[in-house]
Amino acid sequence: MNNSKLDKGTAPHLEIKDLCKQFGITTALNKVSFSVGKGIVCGLVGENGSGKSTLASIVAGMQSSTSGEVYLKGKRWQPKSVLEAQRLGVAMIVQEMGTIGNVTVAENIFLGQENVFAKGLFIERKKLFTEAQKLLDSLGIDSFDARTYVGKLDMQDRKLVEIAKAMYWKPDIFIVDETTTALSHTGRTLLYRLIRELSQNGGTVLFISHDLEEMMEHCDQLIVLRDGVYVGALEKKDYDGNIIKKMMVGRELYGDYYHADLDGYSDEVVLRADFITTLHDLLGFSIELHKGEVLGIGGLSNCGMHTLGKALFGAEKILDGKVYTGNGTAIKSTKDAIENKIGYMSKNRDQESLGLNATVKENIASVGYKLNRVFGPIISYRKESDYVNKQIKDLSIKCASPDHLTNTLSGGNKQKIVFGKWIAADSEILIMDCPTRGVDIGVKAAMYKLIYEMKKAGKSIILISEELQELIGMSDRVIIIRNGEIASETLRSEGLNEHKLIESMV
Ligand SMILES: Nc1ncnc2c1ncn2[C@@H]1O[C@H](COP(=O)(O)OP(=O)(O)OP(=O)(O)O)[C@@H](O)[C@H]1O
Q: Which CDD domains is this protein grouped with (predicted)?
């Protein structure tokens, strides 16, 4: 449908009125009101914990509000469940994993909606698979098929399954919560295309991301939230990065937060992989990390970089070759890694880096617990509390108390906990896979500062990232991996630039 034929942006398609959400003593949303027109891509921006996901999940039928109202096309919107919301035209891609591993792609796509294929008492499974495959083909998704078990897919492909699932219902309202950072370039391109097509056909998109450039490029309007309160709205013509940041954090935030000096690193090797071969991705791969080095690793999502991070931490089965520290200690398991002061932040935070049902305190204290011992195995409560509180304070983790359950925290705050637990444990080597995924600009700046301070203190960092600016801005040396092999290696002093890195990626 042609845009001009739509009353794009005029009549409110989605209206939020005085929306409040209270979780115990936490006010996640406080009388938020705004409206979004038909065919509009509306961005929701705000710091970690500002209420974006809470608002989105209320619209998507995942939870109800404490008070306030939502209207969809002028009618009161009160879906009883996500499935009902989906059927009635509201679909959401959640921030973390929204798929189930031990069933196929097709079954995930139609989860809870199988009765669409019911024939009498039976489900026509063949039809279900055919329909799912048709959907994948129509969306241009070809990296897996409808019969693939989702457990075999990486995070990016699992996100594509969620996107396909949402698209099946041709939603009136499509909500994308911090999804792009889990996607590679190809995945992002696909998502942007779908968002564009949907809005051109009169659908409304609620888009959440911490990448301001991306938001300014793809959104027609931006709504800014701060601490659960509506701060204001901006039309595309008024976009200005500094103004938006100021609205988000309530103060000026200028400048470049990467590190600019070229002070290099020591020759001493602290971690080495010698000709390692893993079940997937890596075949005879070698790499060295030096003391005081920030080694950036980049490439396309499936190039092997995420597997490398796991392998160096002892979390990936190594079929041949070995990983060892500078003093020759072999790293064959995560236990070996932790004992040798190696930390690891997974890209798949919720599944691999956190105990979601544990408290903030239990998570932060989990790796460095020995540091809080007083007599033999006895842990000092006071020491442990100080140890945990320092991270909560230094990283500004928004939680009601150290006893707050981790799964109720916002995405960015969860990421800070993972970072905090390894810093507190005094890691000498930190392997970070996409560490700033889902993290707001203020925290990003704080994390970069901490990475740089760690480097200055002689610690070594492997920064695996899909953000080229981050690699260029933070690394002493960047290795680009292509199809499991080193495609290029560039020292910061030789001049790093996007063009050069992209050339070796593809
Ligand atoms: N189920 C819950 N129980 C208790 N508190 C919650 C729950 N869900 C969210 N919160 C709290 O509500 C506040 C808003 O969280 P929300 O996830 O909406 O923020 P966000 O803006 O999406 O953050 P991020 O950018 O980090 O994803 C946070 O303080 C969070 O800890």
A: ABC_Carb_Monos_I, ABC_Carb_Monos_II
